[in-house]
Amino acid sequence: MTQNPPVLFVDDDENLLMGLKRKLRGKFDFETAVGPLQALEKIKSGNKYSVCVADMRMPDMDGVKLLAEVAKLSPDTVNMMLTGNADQHTAVEAINRGHIFRFFNKPCEDEDLIAGVKAGLRQYQLITAEKALIEQTLAGSVKVLTEVLAQLNPAIFGKAMRAKLWCDTIAKQIGYPHPWELGLAALLAPIGYVSLPPEILARLGEDKPLQPLERDVVRRTPEVARKLISNIPRLEQVAGIVYLQNRNFDGSGFPAEGPLGTEIPLGARVLRIFNDLGKIVESDLVVKQHFDELRHKPERYDPELLNQIEAILAQEDPSYDKVAYPTGTEHDIYLKNLRIGDFLLTDIETRDGHILLTHGNYVSEIQIQRLRVFQELHQFHEPIRVRRGGHDQVATSGGA
Predict the structure, then answer these.
(1) What is the rounded distance in angstroms from the CA atom of residue 123 to the CA atom of residue 100?
(2) Alpha-carbon distance 148 to 53, whole Å?
(3) How far apart are CA 97 and CA 91, in angstroms?
(4) What is the DSSP string of 213-243?
(5) Confidence label for 150 from pLDDT (cuts 50, 70 and 90)
(6) Beta 100-105 vs 78-83: how paired, if at all?
(7) Residue 315 exposed, middle or buried by CB count within 10 Å (0-12, 13-18, 19+)
(8) Which of 50, 70, 138, 211 could form a disulfide with 124 if both were Cys (CB 3.0 to 4.6 A apart)?
(9) Are the C-beta atoms of residues 325 and 389 closer than 8 Å to each other?
(10) Stretch among 36-50, 104-118, 294-308 having the lowest mean pLDDT
(11) What DSSP letter does each residue of 244-297 carry, written as one string?
(12) How many CA atoms lie within 13 A of 39 on its CB side?
């Protein structure tokens, strides 16, 4: 069995602490701190304590304030107080602010103090055992869900993993209070897909168009995800984020009723951006043009958050380097990766023979928007070949 961290006794009377050392030697592992400032310094430097016993009346900071700070810095530590003035006000304040487990009146009999500290040690063991159990349950449950998703559709799981990496990259910089929560929400965002028929899953993994009824079924998968995730301890917030991941900034989207604007949880606003970014980014390279394309649908995203994420994630695209590649570079790409300014070397043609854009032309912003509409309804011959970068040339309009 793992040994408990030591007990910490705090008092401004050094002689009293020396007396405690003599009386309690061999009873349990303990340390002492002369005054509250030294106690806090020990905890801030990384020392762990199972129980903290503090005197009420001390200079610089009384016992209530000290134990309130201990509760913030070391939430698992069991707090106790020694006081010669255990009036009702002191007791209520100590319980509410300092999370006190037990009081001792001065002078305190040795047997009472030893029995009280041993009770505190048992309480510490209960707290840490429960915490370990919850963490193991959490880790195991998440592992099961992610493995199910990975087996179900590796392509969808791969996109979720990439979204998690993006979340891990931006979380601290956008001031997200619990970064692990955001990354986990991204990883579990598509878990509702487990309810979909195999043929719809296959089309989703290959980014193929869906029929209206199929789109409606997919649209409701965050509801399934919320129910699954809510069964896991400590993931209530994650479940809420995943449920609102397709709720648009203007209040449209799924669910039909709910918060809008900045009332939508920050995590859900992040996922709204990353869900769509993942559809147009194929490699690890995220560039400004990707965010330009997202801005074609401003009703979906928190504009300030979109700017923040672009500033963190967007990189320079080496294929647009006009010095290194003065005549541009040629690429075989899928239509979702087509960007404004790409020069078409092949036609963009539907599988039923309709040519939407002809080769020999530069792609404009309007043409990109038109193409996205057509992609909802038609399948195209892919990949296509483009030349990217190089010296500026005058674009000519083309297409059917």
Answers:
(1) 12
(2) 48
(3) 10
(4) HHHHHHHTHHHHHHHHHHTSTT-HHHHHHHH
(5) confident
(6) parallel
(7) exposed
(8) 50
(9) yes
(10) 104-118
(11) TTTB-TTS-BSSSSS--GGGS-HHHHHHHHHHHHHHH--SS--BHHHHHHHTTS
(12) 38
In this predicted structure, the answer to whether residue 91 has a pLDDT above a threshold of 90 is no
The token pair at 286 is 């995220």
| 335 touches 348 (CB < 8 A) | yes
Top pLDDT among 390 and 228 is at: 228
Q: Which residues pair with 30 in a beta bridge?
A: 7
Show the tokens assigned to 189.
Answer: 């965002």
Contact present, 80 and 103 (Cβ < 8 Å) = yes
Task: Tell me the pairing of strands 78-83 and 51-55.
Answer: parallel
Instruction: List the structure tokens of 139.
Output: 């880790």
> What tokens were used for 264?
């939508």
- 253-300 pLDDT, tens digit each: 999 999 999 999 999 999 999 999 998 887 778 988 889 889 989 999
Between CA 126 and CA 260 the distance in angstroms is 42
Buried b (16+ CB within 10 A) or exposed e, 341-362: bbbbeebbbbeeeeebbbbebb
Question: What are the two backbone dihedrals, phi and then psi, of residue 383, each rounded to the nearest 5 degrees?
Answer: -75, 170
